[in-house]
Design goal:
The chain is α+β, with helices and mostly antiparallel strands and 88 residues long. The chain has helices spanning 17-29, 44-50, 72-87; strands at residues 6-12, 33-39, 56-59, 65-67. The chain has one domain: Glutaredoxin (3-Layer(aba) Sandwich). The chain contains three helices and four strands.
Length: 88
């Protein structure tokens, strides 16, 4: 039976060129994930938490996050690590 896709949150805001780079990396990985762009400007709590460190990629409903700067290889390893922990 196929595992459901992991839901990956990309914490971002309008005009963030680094966030655009992170999104492009996620899309190129072609892993079985669903990418959700989370606009931090719409939430004061998210602005306080991520405003100075975006882009941040996180696994939905967990505390697993990776902060910029990260490479495509680091991002892929991050997602694979979560998926292996989840299937254990």
């Amino acid at each position: 039976m196929k595992r459901p896709a992991a839901i990956i949150n990309l914490y971002t805001t309008l005009g963030c060129h680094l966030c655009e780079q992170a999104l492009a990396m996620l899309q190129k990985l072609a892993m079985d994930v669903t990418i959700v762009e989370v606009e931090i400007a719409d939430d004061d709590r998210l602005m306080a938490k991520y405003g100075l460190i975006i882009p941040v990629v996180g696994v939905a409903k967990t505390e697993h996050e990776i902060n910029w700067p990260f490479s495509a290889n680091e991002l892929q390893s991050f997602i694979r690590q979560y998926r292996s922990e989840r299937s254990s």
